[in-house]
Design brief:
2 strands; 75 residues; mainly alpha; two-stranded antiparallel ribbon
């Protein structure tokens, strides 16, 4: 790994669980492809992903709410 690639730290918080509806990790909000490719990405690619992560939080929250409602509806 180059020094440039190391300058953008991983957002991983060691809570690895992919939410099936949102298809993102509940810990870091990255997709499986982003997680798998992180070590090979350029600093620019990593920065772009890091910039996109905050916008994914509402998507994850909505997906969780849909799952919770579905279970309640099933009673």
């Amino acid at each position: 790994m180059s020094e440039d690639a190391a300058e953008v730290e991983s957002p991983c918080v060691k809570t690895c669980l992919i939410q099936p509806k949102a298809r993102v990790c509940v810990g870091c909000l990255r997709t499986i492809d982003e997680i798998a490719g992180w070590g090979r990405m350029s600093p620019e690619e990593r920065r772009a992903i890091m910039a996109a992560l905050p916008s994914r939080a509402p998507i994850l929250a909505e997906a969780r709410g849909q799952t919770t409602r579905s279970r309640k509806e099933r009673g």
